[in-house]
Amino acid sequence: MLASRPRIEPHRSPTIDSVMVKEIYLSVQGESSHAGLLCAFVRLTGCHLRCTYCDSEFAFRGGTRMPNAQVVEQVKALRTPMVEITGGEPLLQPGVYPLMEALLAEGLTVLLETSGAIDVRLVPPAVHKIVDMKTPSSGESDRNDVRNFSSMNARDEMKFVIGSREDYEWSKALIAEHGLATKPFAMLFSTVFDKLHPRELAEWVIADRLPVRFQLQMHKYVWEPEARGV
């Protein structure tokens, strides 16, 4: 059910000791099983996808190139034990891999928010990977890389953002076709904000007894319309 497209691999570059950073800030984690916890966010610049419901288009360009050591120091200055690397698409930058290692070496809990369009096999196993599988309403569902189904471990979570009944049925079929309910990682279902009422999605999950975690994007309800995506 997933069309065959060229695989997207992390870009090769000699610049592996720095990353292009859009912003670093402190907030409350808005989603995933870590929702509600204090978290530092490192948002990297750039993305190769153009999802219709993207809430972080401001991160497509711009930013400041920073040495990884400087990023680590800024994160430590925020004085929280959890950090999420997000974007954009952070795995497009070669420097993100040593950055994740450096953050782990500081004893931090490291989360990675990434699309389902890049295989996460090179991400350090100790990182909590949150992989966003693109549903049809995103316009990018044919970019999903099914190798992620074998590259994720029990720390990880696969996210489905649902904007319609079609998205829901597509996601349900994908779970069945690839036996995702038997995989070690968790699965998260949330709605496209302002496109589908959360109660509808909750009722569909209940009716089908899907083995997923229903969630809201908490930050959207707390800070919208000012909120940016995480």
Primary descriptors:
230 residues; single chain; alpha/beta; globular; 6 helices; TIM Barrel
CATH topology heading: TIM Barrel
Please work out how many helical segments DSSP would assign: 6
- Total strand count, please? 9
Enumerate the spans where pLDDT stays under 50 for 5 or more consecutive residues: none
Give the fraction of residues assigned to helices.
10-25%
Would you list the SSEs in sequence order as H and E?
A: EEEHEHEEHEHEHEH
Radius of gyration: 17 Å
Which class in CATH terms? Alpha Beta
Biggest sheet statistics = 9 strands, mixed
Instruction: Name the strands of the widest sheet in spatial order.
Output: 3-1-2-4-5-6-7-8-9
Q: Average pLDDT value?
A: 91
What's the architecture in CATH terms? Alpha-Beta Barrel
| Basic shape | globular
Q: What structural class do you assign from the helix and strand content?
A: alpha/beta
Catalytic activity: 6-carboxy-5,6,7,8-tetrahydropterin + H(+) = 7-carboxy-7-carbaguanine + NH4(+)
Keywords: 4Fe-4S, Iron, Iron-sulfur, Lyase, Magnesium, Metal-binding, Queuosine biosynthesis, S-adenosyl-L-methionine
Family: Belongs to the radical SAM superfamily. 7-carboxy-7-deazaguanine synthase family.
EC number: 4.3.99.3
Characterization of the model:
- The protein is an alpha/beta fold and 230 residues long.
- It has one domain (18-223): TIM Barrel.
- 23% of the residues lie in helices and 23% in strands.
- It has six helices and nine strands, in the order βββαβαββαβαβαβα.
- It has a nine-stranded mixed β-sheet with strand order 3-1-2-4-5-6-7-8-9.
- Helix 1 (68-77) crosses helix 2 (96-105).
- The two termini are 29 Å apart.
- The relative contact order is 0.17.
